[in-house]
Structures are given as structure tokens and as C-alpha cells.
């Protein structure tokens, strides 16, 4: 009789596979796999999966919607219980940013000054500094639903983050546009990042790459990859 495959086995197999692919992509780029942090994207998956991920050695998880993110974190036993870093990676409305700032450890999707003060208020509420990435758009200007700042807006955004008080500027985040070879988009991102880091030598994080394109992102210098379905399986229909 064969042992039934548990959810834990499924997740462990997905994790093994992705970790191996990360190590291979890093090696191919002449980098160490240890320089790439895996952020497992748990949106639409239950808190029980988050617990399993923590048991399997995952250190960072990503959520893209408020209030789902905060609810799940609370269900996982409030702050720090699982020793996880919670990344908020989704589009942020300014009226929800203070709430997100009150529970996220890292906010990757800061793309306008208006969010900065609200996040800072949330961080104050919790007396906890937040790591911030500026989301830069790789879409052509004017594209519908474009998320992310224009590269030209980054210096002013970075200044606002510095001035806020409770926010630590760590680097940049981007999503490869649909309908373009990801490697081409990530090569543009690498250029934007090089000029950004020249001005901000401490802001070296680069969050780029998802299930379908994280190898290309690692080739272009990503320090953080955000991987969901390749580890947890297909998500239920996007609501
Ligand atoms: C959902 C999501 C991911 C993960 O997507 P997968 O294709 O499931 O790996 C990564 N980044 C962001 C911003 C997301 O919203």
C-alpha cells in the first residue's frame, strides 16, 4: 500500500524543485544561490500552507491583497510567531497603506509619494521599521493598468522614503510586462537598477521574477524572486 501524498509532501516537492532551479540559474549567471532570497507567494492559499512553508525552512512569504494578507498573518499567530518575513507585493491604495504598514515587514510596491507617509504611520503604530522597495514599471508609458513608477520618478520617491523616518529603502521591484520576452524587460531593469544603486549604494535589493520567469530575473541580477504557483500549485480563479 502506498502512503498518501500529503499537502506537506506536495509543497516540499515544489520547494525542492524551485530551490534547485534557483541554484542552477544563479550558477549559470556566475552567482551564488545564497544571494537569492525565495519569497513564496501565498495569496489565495490558506494559513495552513504558510505554516507548512515555515516548517520547510521558508523565511519569506508574499501577499498581494489587503485585508487578506493581514488576516492570514493574524491567523498564523500574530507577529513573529513563525519567524517569517511578510512581504506586501500588490498594488496599494493609499487609504489602505497605513493598515498594511502596521503588519508588513517589507513593502515591495511603493510607486508614489502618497503611499510613503501612510506606510510610515502604520509602521509607527507598530513601532517597527519597514523595508521598502520602489516598484518600477517596465511597461511602455500609457499602458492601461500600469503599476510602478517611471524610472525618472525614483530619486524623488527615494528621498521621500528616507525622510519618512520608519522606512528603510532597500531597493527596487518590478514585474515583467506581458507580451514581451522577460529577459529583454529584465535587461532594461538591470540598467535602471545600476543607475539607482550608483546613487543609493545601500539599496541593493532587486525583487524580480515569478514562477514563469525567475531564471531570467536571476540572470539579470535579482536578489529576491517571488514564486507562487510553481511551489503551491495553481491558484483558484482570481476574484
Ligand atoms: C502573484 C504574484 C507573484 C507570483 O506569481 P506566480 O506566477 O504564481 O509565481 C509574484 N509577484 C506578484 C507581484 C504577484 O502578484
Walk me through what this model shows.
By secondary structure, the chain is of the alpha/beta class. It has one domain: Alanine racemase (TIM Barrel, Alpha-Beta Barrel). It has 9 helices and 8 strands. It has an 8-stranded parallel sheet. Helix 4 runs parallel beside helix 5 (113-126) and helix 5 (113-126) packs parallel to helix 6 (154-164). The chain starts with 6 loop residues before the first helix and ends in a 7-residue tail after the last helix. The mean pLDDT is 94. The structure holds pyridoxal-5'-phosphate. Pyridoxal-5'-phosphate is lined by residues 41, 43, 64, 89-90, 175, 210-212, 226-230.
Bound molecules: pyridoxal-5'-phosphate
User: Could you give me the name of the CATH homologous superfamily?
Assistant: Alanine racemase
**What value does the average pLDDT take?**
94
Largest sheet: 8 strands, parallel
Widest sheet: strand order? 7-6-5-4-3-2-1-8
Q: Calculate Rg over CA atoms.
A: 17 Å
CATH fold assignment: TIM Barrel
Low-confidence stretches: none
Provide a count of the helices: 9
Structural class: alpha/beta
CATH architecture: Alpha-Beta Barrel
**How far apart are the first and last residues' alpha carbons, in Å?**
40 Å
Beta fraction:
15-25%
Global shape:
globular
